[in-house]
Amino acid sequence: MLSSLGLLATPFAFDSFSPSSNKARTLSSTSNHQLAKQLAVESRRGSRKLLGRYVFPFNSVYGKVSHGSLISAVLVDDSSTMTSSEEDAENIGILGVDSALEPFKDHFLYRVKKYVDQKNLFEKHEGGLEEFAKGYLKFGFNREEGGIVYREWAPAAQEAQVIGDFNGWDGSNHKMEKNQFGVWSIKIPDSGGNPAIPHNSRVKFRFKHGDGVWVDRIPAWIKYATVDSTRFGAPYDAVHWDPPPSERYEFKYPCPPKPKAPRIYEAHVGMSSSEPCINSYREFADDVLPRIWANNYTTVQLMAVMEHSYYASFGYHVTNFFAVSSRSGTPEDLKYLIDKAHSLGLQVLMDVVHSHASNNVTDGLNGFDVGQSSQDSYFHSGESGYHKLWDSRLFNYGNWEVLRFLLSNLRWWLEAFKFDGFRFDGVTSMLYHHHGINMGFTGDYNEYFSEATDVDAVVYLMLANSLIHSILPDATVIAEDVSGMPGLGRPVSEGGTGFDYRLAMAIPDKWIDYLKNKNDEEWSMKDISRSLTNRRQTEKCISYAESHDQAIVGDKTIAFLIMDKEMYSGMSCLTDASPTVERGIALHKMIHFITMALGGEGYLNFMGNEFGHPEWIDFPREGNGWSYEKCRRQWSLVDTEHLRYKFMNAFDRAMNALDDKFSFLSSTKQILSSCSEEDQVVVFERGDLVFVFNFHPKNTYDGYKVGCDLPGKYRVALDSDAWEFGGHGRVGHDVDHFTSPEGIPGVPETNFNNRPNSFIVLSPARTCVAWKCTQVPT
């Protein structure tokens, strides 16, 4: 999503650091340091200007359905004491991880105190964070004794009604009542022992705003929304979803354990069909999940799950946050998909969008904004509430009811659908008031901790990660952030934001730059290696060579960039491969493998890229005649035995299997021993494996000396040049390679490339080989 921001990926933000490298950091300017200090001082004083807000007594926001519930709002100055002592509060653990953050201690104190105070307020007035995040049990439509109760937060409404199929869209007999917190409610008694609002019937919230105009809106907490696909541009309808027990999907399989290092398959259900149509959740479960499992992935990341009226938004312009996208089926169908994934041992992550909301009025959350103040809205008012590049609305993360809505949204997807975690989209836009627009992040720490930082958003993310890991300790939570803010991937208990992983977003940009702008002979091994290892060692990254961003219309995937039109005519095994196809398949394997092995602590691949899917993704639109032809996955390409796509797919499967066997992704041992610009060879160790990548377009090196840690006997663990991967079988797999000692043990400067042992290998041009130690001398 952030590729559309005009952001420049920081070259230093993910830099590996050690205490000795702190001097290289640009430290705080006096003005920013003083600002942070002032914020912290005012925070300790309980400044109403900075922290004050209206909060509500425990459960009082729900009020009573009957008229006359009077509970006063309480103005709290947020000067409540922290749960730990003042000394403990000032001991921010993250400062011990990176001492270069010390000048920004006041900033961390301020946001940690704000986080703790917010949790204390939840505890005092709502029963705690986890109870607060059960808003879906009160808001929206819920069964209560003797009827259905509907509640909606709409402070700007002057009058309100609930309308739908059940009352002939006439709300005169179903007027709602408003409490002092702006929450409208009504109880609709059962009729003849049956719910007054039938399951799968349409409903809407009708209200009159300050101009005296009545408008109809989709309820904010609706669980399902549909559209008449036969009518062009038809608005969405809210649907009351409460199936009888016989129609509810019951989960059969437990959530799988959290993998040591996730190997993620990013997928879009709608475009996963081989036919030019929108695929269903059940078809994806039955047809695509087995492919993902067969290729040894551990995790599925689903895009476009939350309802979005504009299909071509890739699911990022969300209109209904609690509703599954009805294009692919019902909530029960999505549950079937997730349960099927769990039966295969696959975790399922959801691409959650809490960074912004669709600008749509008739069918989106924006319809509740009728010009009121930010305090009474889900969004900031004025320019602060609008994203100019995305044409979307921006949440006010300091608002009590916005926090309830978003935190409850996370719990809803975890509890109701058994998701195993989230990939948070657009985190950079959340972290800063400038939203990262036209920013070139350089790694200067002042860029991360200043008046430009949206502390309310940071605190929300801390609360979100705390909630997720409290409900589901084995959850995996990933941040899509291009800025490189330090601490994003450190625990909340240390003063970090709490994500498990961050996406290594600079890596695909590097590959695109090389493929578009450099001849093969110009490829720099040091530059490539630096880009792959340029990350904060104490914060885990998910590496990827390409994702959905590189597959959309106007851009090209790696395979399509390299082979272009020859993918249409030169992929048959019945004829010799052209030099273009030969190069394309070789580099496709090498780029993905070195990205996986050197680029992070987890790996991600977008659906179809594992076999070099040709062409770009082009969603149906007026410009292409509303065609689905290029909004699908041509699985037949990889299934056809005589086409070369099978080679790239087989290598992808083998890469994942290698990590299954040797767990190199989760290993903290990563040693880059050689980056030869002359040879165009990179040699490194990850875990117990030794990797040799020869990017030279022509030179094959016989008798190439490779440094290693363990002495003994080495054999091939994975070889991109093997026949089964479309190679030429030049490296012998049944040959033992014995090591020789190098220099004085324990004295790196006397060793070969600082490694105590070495062995000799054959390294053909444009190949990569992983070597395993099969025998260590006793």
UniProtKB/TrEMBL annotation:
GO MF terms held by the record: 1,4-alpha-glucan branching enzyme activity; cation binding; hydrolase activity, hydrolyzing O-glycosyl compounds
Domain Glycosyl hydrolase family 13 catalytic: 284-655
Active-site residue list: 425, 480
Compartment list: Plastid, Amyloplast
Pfam families for this protein: Alpha-amylase, Alpha-amylase_C, CBM_48
GO biological process assignments: amylopectin biosynthetic process; cellular response to fructose stimulus; cellular response to glucose stimulus; cellular response to light stimulus; cellular response to sucrose stimulus; glycogen biosynthetic process; starch biosynthetic process
Record pathway: Glycan biosynthesis; starch biosynthesis
InterPro entries with a match to the protein in the record: A-amylase/branching_C, Branching_enzy, GH, GH13_cat_dom, Glyco_hydro_13_N, Glyco_hydro_b, Ig-like_fold, Ig_E-set
EC numbers, comma separated: 2.4.1.18
Chain coiled-coil ranges: none
GO cellular component: amyloplast
Keywords: Amyloplast, Plastid, Transferase
Catalysed reaction equations from the record: Transfers a segment of a (1->4)-alpha-D-glucan chain to a primary hydroxy group in a similar glucan chain
Known partners and oligomeric status: Monomer.
Family under the similarity heading: Belongs to the glycosyl hydrolase 13 family. GlgB subfamily.
Stated name of the protein: 1,4-alpha-glucan branching enzyme
Taxonomic source organism: Theobroma cacao (Cacao)
